[in-house]
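This section describes the prediction task in plain terms. A model, or a person checking by hand, is given the sequence of a single protein chain and must write out its three-dimensional structure as a string of tokens. No templates, partner chains or ligands are provided. The sample shown here is typical of the held-out split.
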Amino acid sequence: MDTSVATINPLVTRVDIQRVAVVTIQNPPVNALSTAVVTELNAVLGAAISDKRVDAVVLIGGGRTFVAGADITEFVRTGTGPFLPPVLDRMETSPKPVVAAMHGSALGGGLEIAMAAHHRIGAPDLQVGQPEVNLGIIPGAQGTQRLPRLVGMAKAVDMCVTGAPVKMADAVQAGLVDRIADGDLQAAAIAFALEAVSSGGPHPRTSRRSEKLGSLSENAAIFEAGRETARRIRRNQIAPLKAIEALEAAATLPFEKGCSRESELFAECMAGEQSKALMHAFLGERLVAKVPGLPEDTATLPIARAAVIGAGTMGAGIAMVFGNAGIPVRIRETDQTALDRGMASIRPIASSTLSVVT
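The expected answer:
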């Protein structure tokens, strides 16, 4: 098997194998999409697609994952984040087949990139999702327009409102991933790409699909159920409701106009206080998890049992964390009344690994 290196740079690499350009995103630890990554990716993809020595393209993530989303710090800093549509359009309109090869996580912008490819293949460990509502925003790179075209409106509403990841088997059944890789992901993706070459064109474009978008009457019930779910699990949050509006646009407008409506709704979410607060919390949680001067590979000590002194609000909460993690915990209080009051708040939701001491 002949291999030749065509382009190498710090963020995106290209290696040609059997006339297939393997384009790898290299932005550890999770290959987050920044403007720099997207700019390099667009350039490398453009060069591969226009290269007469290349018959197909495979897009893959280096390291432990595909692309786990966009760089949130850039969203906070610029108010917009990286601009993906030029990359998406370049992939989808390519006369040569483009295969997205995914492992680990393909979330947010990572999934939006994969959905613009002609074909998608994944490793068995793959999880996909549109978790943007967790940050107070909606998918902003054509995600609300492509997702229902692949998985149907009910599944798209569920994914965009809950933000929950979807495991590989579910993704294949829904039509989001075409094939599970058997063995080495890159080798399987190259074989898939060569199959697509031999089958000829035109290659399938997600934006032109409409068979899963559903009718107005079918979707009305789906959208109402989605709004009810949002009211129940994301009380007073605007992002899940905006996501449903964007999905409605996918069902009622041509693709290009639906994308424009998605952009408007995304901008409204970004300008709101909820997104600012949730992004601040997201970054803060990751910051406090890093102890200055403590290496990430520092071994942790096993915890066999725990004790909590005081069953007040804080003590009860700490006890529940230990108990629900399966760690036996004893609670000590100064008198029975205080202990009974604390246990009354703990028992309904805690595991059976708690004991009490007065």
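For orientation: The domain at 3-273 is CATH 3.90.226.10 (2-enoyl-CoA Hydratase; Chain A, domain 1).
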